[in-house]
Each structure stands twice: as C-alpha cells, then as structure tokens.
Sequence to fold (485 residues):
Amino acid sequence: MAAVQTFDMILFGGTGDLVMRKLLPALYHQHRDGQMGDGARIIGVARSNLSSDDYIATAEKHCAQYLGEAFDKAVWASFAQRLGYQRVDAQNPAHFADLAAMLDQFKDRIRVYYLSTAPSLFTATCENLANAGLVTAHSRVVLEKPLGHDLASSQAINDAVGRYFAENQIYRIDHYLGKEPVQNLLALRFGNALFEPLWRREWVRDVQITVAEQIGVETRGDFYDKTGALRDMVQNHLLQLLCIVAMEPPSSIDSDAVRDEKLKVLRALKPFTPNEVITKTVRGQYRAGAAAGKPVPGYLEEPEIPADSRTETFVAIKAEIDTWRWAGVPFFLRTGKRMQEKVAEIVINFRDVPHSIFGMPAGHGFNRLVIRMQPEESMKLYLLAKQPGDAMHLGQVHLNLDFEETFKTRRLEAYERLLMDAVRGKLTLFVRRDEQEAAWRWVEPIIDAWEQSTDKPKTYTAGTWGPAASSALLSRDGLAWHEEI
Ligand SMILES: NC(=O)C1=CN([C@@H]2O[C@H](COP(=O)(O)OP(=O)(O)OC[C@H]3O[C@@H](n4cnc5c(N)ncnc54)[C@H](OP(=O)(O)O)[C@@H]3O)[C@@H](O)[C@H]2O)C=CC1
Ligand SMILES: O=C1O[C@H](COP(=O)(O)O)[C@@H](O)[C@H](O)[C@H]1O
Fold:
C-alpha cells in the first residue's frame, strides 16, 4: 500500500502499557516497511516529567523487548528521529499551549490524537485540545476501549467528544476488527458466491465465537476488577465478530455501508429478560491452577484484587438474532482469562444432511467452517470423505487454508493497520457511535441481572475451558464447544 500522507500522531498515555507494548511496536513496523512519509512525527504525551531523550530511551527498551527478533538497531535509530515527548496533564489547560507550540509548526498536517488513557480523561482532553485551537479540519481522535462503563457513561463521553470532533473524525478502536482473518471473513462472505446460499438458518445449525486467553489479569488488576470480561471483551470484540458473521451484504465496502449493516445486527439481538440471563449466560472466575505447565494463583489472589471480588473472568452466552436470516440459530459466545489455550476463533456448524445413506449419526456437525484468528491465522472447512479401504467408511477431513503459508508476506498486527487507517481517514474498521451504544444496550440487562443476583460467579480451575456450566449451556441444545487445538 502507498505510504500515508505526512502526519503528526499524538499519543496521550504515551508512557503507558498499551503504547509501549502495542502502539509503538506497530508504528515501528510501519516505519520499517516504508509506510510513513518523511517528516511524520510521533509524540508521546503524559504527565511524567521526561525529556524527549528519556522518552526515546524508555520506548527503545520496551520496543526491543516486545519486538524481539524484529527489533533492529539501525531501523530503531531512524524511527527514533520521528519520536518526541511533551509533558501534558490532560486536565491542565495551560499544558496544551506547550503542545500547540510543538504542533503549530505544521498547521495543515493530518493530526491523529490517540487517547490511550483512562476514558475519564477523554472529555477534558478533547475540550483542552479544542480550546488550544488544536482541533483542525485535518484532525482525528482515536478512542481506546472500553468507552464508558455502561450505556449512560458511554453516551456522556460520546456527547462530550462530539462537541469538539465530528463523528467522521472519531475513530473508536476495536483491535479485533484490525485482525487479518476478520477481514478475510468479509472476503470469504462477500467475495465468493459459494457460501452465501448456505449462510442462513436453513443451513447453519449454530455459530460459536471463542476468544480464550491463557494469561490472567497480569498487571491490570485494578482496571480489570472494575471492568470484568463482559465489558472488557463481549461488549466490544465478541459482538463485533458476531456482527461480521451475521450482517447482511453491505452495498459497498464503504465505512457507513458496513457499519449500517453491523448496526442492524446489534439492534436485532434478542434482549434478555432477567430470567433468561440466568438460563442463557454463564459467568465464571478462575481459581488457582496451571498455565503452560506452571502453577498460577486464582483471581482472588492476584495483586489489587479484593478477596471478595465477584468480577467475572469468564463469560459464556447463548445469543439469538431476530431476523429472517438467523431466527432460531444460537450464537454461542465465550471468552475468558486463564483458559487452557490462547485461541480466538469463529466456528460455523452446518446442519446435517436430511438423511445419511452412510449411517452417520445425526447431530455431529460434520460440516464445519473454522476461522482462526489466534494462535495461527487459518480457515478450515470440515467435510466427510471416504476413508481408504474396501468398506464405505466415512471420516471427517478438512480443507485447510493456512494464510501464513499461502500468503508469504508479513502479517500486519491489528494495531498497524488501524493506526494507518486512522491516518488515511478510513473509518470502515472503526466503530460508529450508534453501533457502540446498541452493543451497550444489549449487554446492560446482563450486567443488571448479575449485579442484582446474590450468586457468585462459578469458579473454574485456571488452565481449563471454564466452568462446567459453560458446557451445559450447549449440551442443553445437544451441542458441544469446538475444542480442537
Ligand atoms: N493495556 C492494554 O493492553 C489495553 C489497554 N486498553 C485501554 O487503553 C487505555 C490505556 O491503557 P494502559 O496503557 O494499559 O494504561 P496505563 O495505566 O499503563 O497508562 C496510562 C497512561 O495515561 C497517562 N496519564 C494518566 N493520567 C494522565 C493525565 N491526567 N494526563 C495525561 N496523561 C495521563 C499515564 O502517564 P502519567 O502517569 O505519566 O501521566 C500513562 O501514560 C485504557 O483506557 C485501557 O482500558 C485497551 C485495550 C488493551
Ligand atoms: O482488549 C483487550 O484485548 C486483550 C486480548 O487481545 P488479543 O489481541 O491478545 O486477543 C485482552 O487481554 C484485554 O484484557 C482486553 O482489554
């Protein structure tokens, strides 16, 4: 792809975990691949009193650690020329004058303000940027998730940001949309005629979306305990994946055409009554166990977690979409920390043949499409084939499209694509306000019912696939989670 126009990218929260672990390494890769024009600048911003040299030294240490073999001293030296630091307390209007002095050298440039801070700072940041004359026609603001804690708080943030930036200048990031296989799902569905006739209730028995992590809450205990898996993963990543699976064909790949269709799916999600929250959702919390063969503590023993915390580290949900295409097809969503493997995948289970002349048992979902985002990027189509020999015995085989093997070019990390899309002004892979609020509207009854319940989350041993209730959620429909590693 052609290099982007020269830009200034201002990373609020520039000393934080996300910037050091994900954003700077992503920008380093784009620099190395020649995607940034001469003169593009990346400015870290935070309250700490650092010189640009201090900042660059810290950034180098972290990037060397996170980039591993991809880190190259000479590339770093040229990348570092783009880096700078400005001390800004987002809540202190006076500090924005210093930022303005730095940015106003190039008034007409594209400016990307990336807010990688707590959302409680977004309003003050935008207001102070505007009052300092820093919001120009060429400015964009990228908002990290989670945006708010519930519908009301997300609306309040959106209203506040919307006072200073037009909706088409607001880039709500969901890094799952930047993952290559997710975009490949769009290609599979809308670039091939093959699947469209099958992609509906008549042929699809159930859909399963799993995002399982092996890690625990790591150093983010305080944040996580106030958030939980439903807000951290389901309200955004899992629902966005569900939208890509379930949406109608958009009229084009333009941002609003795609986002309109995703919105319709979110609005068609069947809302839960309090009673249905009990029967159709499972929340879990990990107890001590093992990860990658080593003992690990339970959630309640993690740093910064209150001993009586009821925060869920695991969620499973049976969702349904009230449309002609999907009525009656269960969409099972599952995510958790400290699970057996790190795996992110979408599984489409097709219905059985109406009558098996080979005597195959019914209900086994022999035809299955598995789209893997992690650990590897692949798409597998499971079919039945005759096993070699004189007898007519069938066995399950799969056609495997391994993207890494098929396309030898380097895989872009999600943040690489999304950061450059923000510079290019491409909104397709970012979430529009109405989508985000529709997602909050759907999860809120679950949050409310859990908060009102006296039940604790079901515990599960770290290193397993979650509480037994998660399997029961599917077995009640005669189904089981796809768990092939
Ligand atoms: N880390 C991750 O993996 C992910 C994070 N996110 C989201 O990204 C955001 C940032 O997360 P993360 O990097 O982990 O957070 P950290 O706590 O590691 O970093 C917070 C950053 O904000 C800065 N900051 C705090 N207060 C102010 C202020 N008043 N003015 C200016 N800067 C300030 C801090 O620097 P200083 O103290 O020097 O001011 C620091 O650079 C959060 O909203 C989080 O939910 C989303 C997905 C994943
Ligand atoms: O947004 C988040 O995502 C990560 C998981 O992302 P992945 O790309 O590594 O699958 C999760 O660990 C984190 O809690 C959450 O905030």
